[in-house]
Amino acid sequence: MNIHSASAFTFLCFLTIIFPLSSSNVQSQDLTFKYCDKNAKYSMKVSAVKASSNPVVRGVPFTINTTFHSDEAITGGKAQYRLKSDEVDAVYTYASNVCEEKQCPVSAGKHGLILDMRFPAVAPKGTYHMNMTFVDQNGKKLTCIISPFKVDDATTK
Ligand SMILES: *[C@@H]1O[C@H](CO)[C@@H](O)[C@H](O)[C@H]1NC(C)=O
Ligand SMILES: *[C@@H]1O[C@H](CO)[C@@H](O)[C@H](O)[C@H]1NC(C)=O
């Protein structure tokens, strides 16, 4: 059920897509998100984006759980992530071929998408925006959302 791919950037990052929604539930916090283009008619509608922690702690694995509804069966394509600091010049990108290690087509309907990743301990702290874009095998955008989150060090309480 898992998709593991080499990362294009320096920190460890792997993507796991679970179809259908996993019954396991990590304690999570809802992230705000908006569509890249509010007028676009995306065939994938996102209903929730949850982070296992917020702020995300540098050097510690975390999970982004995106719940979406797809109007169409997914027969191919890529998930692309771009994580950009608001404050400094730091961008991390990642892409995964959905069907490379996952049996397609993925049925129309509601699904959960789990992204497991980790910022390096030396990543700049602060506010980041994640651009998450899905494209189908023809390069057509299935969905595109922007979600902000904070990256910090662990606090001792
Ligand atoms: C992901 O979020 C959905 C919707 O809130 C939830 O049903 C599911 O259990 C979550 N999955 C994980 C692994 O946390
Ligand atoms: C998000 O990423 C997609 C794919 O790279 C791009 O087309 C789109 O313009 C980006 N949107 C924003 C608001 O950054």
Spatial shape = elongated
What share of residues is helical?
A: under 10%
C-alpha Rg (nearest Å): 15 Å
Whole-number total of structural domains: 1
Distance between the termini: 37 Å
Bound molecules: 2-acetamido-2-deoxy-beta-D-glucopyranose
Q: Structural class per helix/strand content? A: mainly beta
Low-confidence stretches: 1-26
GO molecular function: sterol binding
Pfam families: E1_DerP2_DerF2
Keywords: Signal
InterPro entries: Ig_E-set, ML_dom, NPC2-like
What does it look like?
Residues 1-28 form the signal peptide. Keywords: Signal. Pfam families: E1_DerP2_DerF2 (PF02221). Residues 33-149 form the MD-2-related lipid-recognition domain. It is built from no helices and 11 strands. Mean pLDDT is 80; it is low at 1-26. With 157 residues, it is mostly beta strands. The chain has one domain: Immunoglobulin-like. The strands form 2 sheets. Strands 3, 5, 7, 8, 10 and 11 form a 6-stranded mixed β-sheet that branches. Strands 1-9-6-4-2 form a 5-stranded antiparallel β-sheet, with no helix packed on it. The structure holds 2-acetamido-2-deoxy-beta-D-glucopyranose (2 copies). One 2-acetamido-2-deoxy-beta-D-glucopyranose binds next to strand 4, strand 6 and strand 9. One 2-acetamido-2-deoxy-beta-D-glucopyranose (NAG) is lined by residues 21-22, 24-26, 28, 48, 50, 65, 67, 112, 114.
